[in-house]
Amino acid sequence: RLFLEGPAASSLAHASHGLSDTYAEPSARYLLRHGSEVLRGSPVKTVKRSPAGFEITHGDASPITVRGLCLAVPAAVTRTLLSPELRTSSPALEQAADFPSAPIVSVNLWFRGDAPLLAEPFVGLVDGVFSWFFDRSALTEDAGGQRHVALLAPGARALLSLPAAEIVDLALATLQGFCEADLQQRLSDSRVVKEPNAAPSLTPQVESLRPGQETAEPGLTLAGDWTRTGLPATLESAATSGHRAAALLHAFLERRA
Fold first, then answer.
1. Which end of the chain is more exposed for a tag (fewer CB within 10 A), N or C?
2. What's the Cα-to-Cα distance from 185 to each of 112, 119, 155, 174, rounded to whole Å?
3. Residue 69: which of 106, 91, 104, 44 has the closest Cα?
4. Burial of residue 212, with CB atoms counted within 10 A of its CB: 0-12 exposed, 13-18 middle, 19 or more buried
5. What are phi and psi for residue 244, nearest 5 degrees?
6. 135 Cβ contact list (under 8 Å, min separation 6)
7. Sign (positive/negative) of CA torsion 202, 207, 213, 214?
């Protein structure tokens, strides 16, 4: 996709706001404008067959009955929500729910002063503990008298057992190799976020086991970065799966109209 589809396919974009403001809130507004109902804070508990399609129990409210359904949650959660007879509609689901996972460790650092640390706001770091550097103040255009930067370490299992203070020291040492200023003196605050199961680890051994978006149950589709898209477990994979699941549901509902 990057190399065979022209310059536009390899152009980089970045979010100037948080992911909720970039994706979730605009999606909710779109659905509301088009006559949909958006339920918040009412987590789904179970999904089972009903004469009219599927019955969904959620929160403390009355069950919802729908004709078509897309479950866009992790594989392990999907397995928990589906009734036993629906789980068999996707034979690969049981294996997908047990895929190994990969962690992501991120370090947020706040430095006194507005001066940027690196020449570019988004940098890939090679052969180090951390793989990515983001100048959040530059990307969001909101320095506010200090510099907020983030370093990401995808798949860094060795960092999970380290105390936050040691991880911050590693992040500072990484940045110090590219900066002349004394970063320790400029540091005003820090925060370490560990996500042990941030994404499925789609190794060659499990790649062929990823389930598709379509199931053997008419009207039931699956979406998520873990489904079979031909892409790694990324936002692009999740979006691709969502488009495919939506197309399947649209065709199903058209046939039943």
1. C
2. 9, 20, 30, 15
3. 44
4. middle
5. -65, -40
6. 116, 117, 118, 120, 121, 122, 147, 148, 149
7. negative
**Residue 171 corresponds to which tokens in the numbers above?**
């992040």
Supply angle C-alpha 53, 254, 32, rounded to 5: 75
Could you say which DSSP state residue 249 is in? H
Residue 155 near residue 102, CB atoms below 8 Å: yes
The residues, ordered by sequence, that sit 6+ positions from 43 with a Cβ below 8 Å of its Cβ are 58, 59
φ/ψ (deg, to 5) at 123: -135, 135
Q: What is the pLDDT along the chain (257 residues), one digit of tens a residue?
A: 788 888 888 887 777 778 888 889 999 999 999 999 999 889 999 999 999 999 999 988 899 999 999 999 999 999 999 999 999 999 999 999 999 999 999 999 999 988 888 888 889 998 889 999 999 888 876 657 889 999 999 999 999 999 999 999 999 999 998 888 889 999 999 999 999 999 899 989 899 999 999 999 999 999 999 999 999 998 899 999 999 999 999 999 999 87
Predicted TM-score of the model (pTM): 0.85
pLDDT per position as a tens digit, 116-169: 888 888 899 988 899 999 998 888 766 578 899 999 999 999 999 999 999 999
Tokens of 93: 């689901």
Beta bridge partners of 190: 109
Q: Decide the pairing of beta strands 44-50 and 122-124.
A: unpaired
CA proximity to 181, closest of 91, 114, 136: 114
DSSP three-state, residue 212: coil
Euclidean distance between CA atoms 142 and 119, whole angstroms: 17
Token digits for 204? 């060659």
